[in-house]
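Quarterly update, task 2.4: adenosine-5'-diphosphate-bound model.
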Amino acid sequence: MMKILLGSSEVHPYSKTGGLADMVGALARTLARAGHRVGVVTPLYQGIPGRFPELKPLDLPLDFPLGARRVRGGVLGLEVERGLTIYFIDQPGFYQRPDLYQSHGTDYPDNAERFIFLSKAIAHLALHLSWKPELLHVNDWQTGFAPLFIHHQKRLPGWGNVPHSCLTIHNLAYQGLFPAGQYAAANLPWEYFTPDGVEFYGQMNCLKTGIRYAGVLATVSPRYAREITTPEFGCGLDGLLRHRRRSLFGILNGVDYDEWNTSNGPYIKHHYSSGNLRGKAANKLELQREMGLPEDDAIPLFGSIGRLVEQKGVDVMLGALEEMLGTRLQFVLLGTGTPVFQRAYQQLARRFPSKVSVQIGFDEALSHRVEAGCDFVLMPSRFEPCGLNQLYSLRFGAIPIVRATGGLDDTVIDVRENPDKANGIKFAEYSAPALAKAIRKALVLYQAPQLLHQFRQNAMAADFSWKHTATEYLKIYRHGMEGEKSLTESC
Ligand code: ADP
């Protein structure tokens, strides 16, 4: 049995803007169900107490220096199930806001303080919880300072054993870069603010801090783990990542199949299975109706769910749709993001009202219905650390059309790779014509019902369950516990 504390700025089902939340929520549950003692530290955002009235204040007062001032807070606990406690950091000034990170597309100006405070709280609980966590697993830039706080604590007189640490990089493109002056909020010696530590070309880099000081590093797919050690995908940190290569592991995220389930999932009207796909056809008609498109099972229905940002290839998708909308197909989009992309897709829907329907917003229930109703799902990402939607699409029998990058390449099988196991369509070049060509292949597949059925069977049989992912994490936790000694000595 291991004692593991996770730290994250979002955790499903309490808060979510992306895959990070799904991963932390599911990893915590899976580890707890395997008999480990697990805690998760995360902010108490607006709306959480109302949705989870069983939250209890814990006797763990927080009172930290934050630059020149002191900031107090509290901790509320939620016993989710045996062996799993969520520790919500209650600091209303920082976290009681309508959104997690930004307002109307602009980052909150005090994000450095908000997440350094969170990192301090995580490190504090890692050191002071009565059940003495032995491994601290933090995620992304928002919690990147926690391994440094632990590292620093270890150097102070009187500290013996501190927890070992692991950092998962969910997306290297988001590093938490702030002006150097914000480092004052960490209340740490300036000796860490060097190119070998916190500093990144004169700025404070929260993710780099985690990469530098965490004992072991993970990212969310094997291909992305390789990609980020190259200048093309390394976002300026490839040198450091190459240096830490022996401690960097690619572990695919899993899927919570209790939730993403076609035979009894909560949001799907007509349940179905690989043995009986009639429900899928009925869901398609429901989705067409809901999205205001002509109801016709014979028209191939494409979908897309996700953040409308450049990373996701939304520009390429616009171009490919322009090229393809002359043919007989429909397209539904559920997403939110950069206003210019939102407007562009809304305009497309206005120009092609019987072919394109766009829902701007974040809607978990609708995301299930899109996966259940669509024949194909598009993911033309420029880069994709893991990607979850293609995994949901596979399970829901919606054939993923993906660019061969990162986790998309690791999880989808193209007919050229393995004709018997093919479950999706891949393309390599990041361009609208390349995606349009992949869409044409999908249209051909749609006209070949037996082959389409085979693709669907292969897709729905693919298994990315959390048990495997959690086992891989336990392995690297152990690796970190054995290897950290040498790292500490070299710092
Ligand atoms: P990322 O973390 O880069 O946004 P992932 O594919 O790893 O991308 O995870 C995205 C997660 O967020 C998936 O669970 C996806 O279904 C969900 N999601 C993204 N946008 C929306 C939306 N507009 N409505 C509902 N769910 C969404």
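Highlight for this quarter: The two ends are 30 Å apart (CA to CA).
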